[in-house]
Amino acid sequence: MSFLRRTLIAAASVAVLSASFAAAAQDIKPRLIRFGYGLNEQSNQGRAAKVFADEVAKLSGGKMKVRAIGAAALGPDNQMQQALIGGAQEMMVGSTATLVGITKEMALWDTPFLISNVKEADILLDGPIGDKVRNKLQEKGLVGLAYWENGFRNLTNSKRAITKMEDMQGIKLRVMQNNVFLSTFQTLGANAIPLAFSELFSALETKTVDGQENPFNTILSSKFYEVQKYMTVTNHVYSPWIVTVSKKYWDQLSKDEQKVLSDAAKTSRDFERKDTRAEAAKAMADLKAKGMEINEMSPAESDRMRDKLTKVYAGIGADIGMELWNETQAELKKIRAAK
Ligand code: TK8
Question: CB neighbours of 206 closer than 8 A, spacing ≥ 6?
Fold first, then answer.
C-alpha cells in the first residue's frame, strides 16, 4: 500500500469517527430553550415558568433544557414575539393583548366584561373557541400551547379615588400596546397612553403616567403599591397569558419533543391558575396593608361603562369577524345555563 493510500484511509476513518462522535454529542447535548417572560421571578408568572422548566426536564429525561428568563431581560412582549417568529428565541409567555397586531382574533380576549368568572374563563379558553384563536397564530409563525391566567384587571392611580366613570377624566393611564385597550380607556374618559410593561414602573414613579390597570397579582409582585395610592376593583376584563413557541423551532422538533412541550405547558397552566387564584384571594388585604386605598366599582357603574363601550364592542366584532363573536356569545350562554 502506498503511503498516500494509507494516509487517505486513515484520514477517512478519522473523519467517520469524528462524524459519529458529533452525532452522539448532539444526541446528549440538551436542547436549550430560552423561555422569556415580562414579570419578575417572584411573580405568579415566574413561579409557573419554573414549573414549566422543571416539567420539561422531567418529561424529556433531561434531554431538553428550559432556561426561564424573566423581567423582560429578553425584551418586552412585542420584541420577544418577533424573535420567536424569526427563530432567534424559542419560547415565551406573555399577554394575548400584545399579540393582537399579529393575530387580530386575539382581540376577543380584550373585550371588556366578556368573562365574568374563572369558571367561564377556563371553559372558554380551554375549549373550541380558545383553540380556534390559539391556532390562528400558526400562520404567523407562532405555536400557542396553553393559556395561563393573568387575571381580572383592576385600576390603580396616584391622583384620586375612582368610584365612577367620570373620575377617570384626564387621568394619564398607561394601557397595553393594543387598540382595544386604547379605545376602551379613551372612551371611558382617561388619557390613555400605550407603553410596554417593562417601562411601566418607572413611568409611574416619575409620574409620566398617573395610573395603570393590571390584576391584583401583578400590582403586588411588581410593587406598584409603592407608587400608586388608589386602587379600584373594576374587574373590567379577564386577561389571559399565552405560552408560545417559535414555529421555526417547533418544526425542527420530533413529535415526542413537541409532546413534552405541550404536556409541560398544560401542567404549568394548571399549577399557574391555582397559584394565581390563591394569591389573588389574599391580595386585597396585602395591598391594603401596604397602604393602598381600595374602592370597589359598583355593579351599576360597571353597567354604565358597558353601555358607554357599545362602539368598542362593535369594533371588536368587526375586527375578529362576526362568526367568532357570535360563537363566543353562544358558548358563554351555554356555560351560564349549565351552572
Ligand atoms: C407582561 C405583560 C403584563 C400585562 C401588561 O409582559 O402589559 O400590563 O398585563 O402581564 O404582558
Answer: none
Give the model confidence (pLDDT) of 62-104 as tens digits: 999 999 999 999 999 999 999 999 999 999 999 999 999 999 9
Residue nearest to atom 10 of ligand 1 (CA): 95
Q: Of ligand 1's atoms, which has the minimum distance to the CA of residue 98? A: 11
Q: pLDDT tens digits, residue range 217-247? A: 999 999 999 999 999 999 999 999 999 999 9
Please report the atom of ligand 1 found closest to the CA of residue 77.
6
**If DSSP codes are grouped into helix, strand and coil, which group holds residue 151?**
strand
CA of 22 to the centre of ligand 1 (A): 42
The closest residue, in CA terms, to atom 4 on ligand 1 is: 95
Q: Which atom of ligand 1 is nearest to the CA of 76?
A: 6
Decide if 60 is inside a domain: yes
Q: With pLDDT > 90 as the criterion, what percentage of the chain qualifies? A: 91
**Residue 22 located in a structural domain:** no
Number of domains in the chain: 1
What residues in the chain have per-residue pLDDT under 70?
A: 1-30, 339
Cβ contact 339:119 at 8 Å: yes
Structural domain that includes position 119: 28-337
In a domain, 17, yes or no: no
**Cβ of 179 below 6 Å from ligand 1:** no
CATH number at residue 311: 3.40.190.170
99 touches 314 (CB < 8 A):
no
Q: Is the CB of 151 under 6 A from ligand 1?
A: no
Residue 190 backbone zone (phi > 0: left; psi -120 to 50: alpha; other: beta): beta
- Please tell me if the CB atom of residue 221 comes closer than 6 angstroms to any atom of ligand 1: no
Kindly state the cell numbers that stand for 309: 363601550
Q: Is residue 244 part of a domain?
A: yes
